[in-house]
Amino acid sequence: MNDDTQLGSISHPPDDAMPPPVPMPSPLDGRANDAPRPVDDEGTVLGERAKAIWTESPAQPGWPRNPAVRTHKAEQTDRTPPISMPKPDDDIAWFHDAFAKLVGNVSRVVVGKERAIRQCVAALVAGGHVLLEDDPGTGKTQLARGLANSIATSFKRIQFTPDLLPSDVVGVTYYDRRNDGFTYREGPIFASIVLADEINRASPKTQSALLEVMEERKVTVDGETHPVPRPFMVIATQNPIDQLGTYRLPEAQMDRFLIKTAIGHPGHAASLDILRQAGITDRAATVAPVLDASDVLRMQGVGGTVHMDDAVLEYIVRLVEGTRHDERIRIGASTRGALALARCARVWAASDNRGYVVPDDVKELAEPVLAHRITLTPEATFSGETQRQAIRRLLDQVPAPTIGAGLQGG
């Protein structure tokens, strides 16, 4: 009996007149057999990593459909189960278009820095705040103003100085002689997008005035609580070079920022393009709104519906727990950091026209979301390691979930 007859006896029940077929060993065990091993489209033999995927996929040429084989699952050491991913819907497609429109409009202000712009827009949609830390003249303020001018909503700018008081930020209650009573006057924090320029130049007392509003979206003055507009976002800038007359942001303040990122200097081609338009002194003033506040709120709602598999959630938890147990990290990321990474990953997936989160979304955002939330040990600092390098090292150490090609359309 040739090989074709043997495979046919496995795929089809034998006739009563024929003797029972000889059982063939499973391709998953170590015994040799005549059935070809599984290969991908390029002819590469699939190994242990792919076993959990092909067992649920349709039959491949040369693979016997043995129930014992289909029910066998290869154990993944230090790995989470494959991810099931639903298809995107019309809301995700609308989200993708709106996100791209907003990023493209801001890119006219800050040329050649799409990555930083996407991170700022993702923070806005995720309901968080951004800290831009970079050298002078790189466009931090222009990016913040460009984003604000691209949305038809309220915008206020606060120039932080050493003599700035908390009441200058959140407002003050004063005695109104005309009404013969006390009246509350709102501060510049009551806007949808607030630019806190050079935030580290204000005293810690003034910096702490932002703690409540950044976390709870409300301001309490003289026992009265006042909600801020929605959406609400604080974009803070600071200069890492000049330390004279500055006050370092405390850990509690840093943890309030969803993302900390940098813009960097433009490339050669972008620099030439900027110089050709040297006559434009205020690039942020040249853009018009492409979305309004209701669009941003809708995007926030759509972003919250993006599917995140338990395997990805476990991956996020392992990354955050890794920051707490690493011997070179003195203070690890908090639960707020894990929640921030999950929210940003959902928005990042929707911006890529997907209704599901993949591990690459988490990897892409781990540095800007988690790096500023950790504190290195003195030994790690003296050796020259940075917070971002520590997060990259954890990304190499923590195994990511495996995505099966047969499950992408699930």
Describe the protein.
The chain has 410 residues and is α/β, with parallel strands linked by helices. The chain folds into 3 domains: 25-75, no CATH class; 90-291, 3-Layer(aba) Sandwich (Rossmann fold); 310-407, Orthogonal Bundle (Helicase, Ruva Protein, domain 3). Helices cover 38% and strands 13% of the residues. The chain has a 5-stranded parallel beta sheet with strand order 3-6-9-1-10. The chain has a two-stranded parallel sheet with strand order 2-11. α4 (90-107) packs across α12 and α13 crosses α14 (335-351). The protein is globular, with a radius of gyration of 28 Å.
Task: Give a brief outline of the structure.
The chain is α/β, with parallel strands linked by helices. 38% of the residues lie in helices and 13% in strands. It has helices spanning 3-11, 51-54, 67-70, 90-107, 114-125, 140-149, 167-170, 204-207, 211-216, 251-254, 268-276, 293-303, 310-325, 335-351, 359-370, 378-382, 387-397; strands spanning 130-133, 151-152, 155-159, 171-176, 181-186, 193-197, 218-221, 224-227, 233-238, 259-261, 291-292, 329-331, 375-376.
Walk me through the topology.
Elements lengths: L2 H9 L39 H4 L12 H4 L19 H18 L6 H12 L4 E4 L6 H10 L1 E2 L2 E5 L7 H4 E6 L4 E6 L6 E5 L6 H4 L3 H6 L1 E4 L2 E4 L5 E6 L12 H4 L4 E3 L6 H9 L14 E2 H11 L6 H16 L3 E3 L3 H17 L7 H12 L4 E2 L1 H5 L4 H11 L13
Parallel strand pairs: 1-9, 1-10, 2-11, 3-6, 6-9
Antiparallel strand pairs: 4-5, 7-8, 12-13
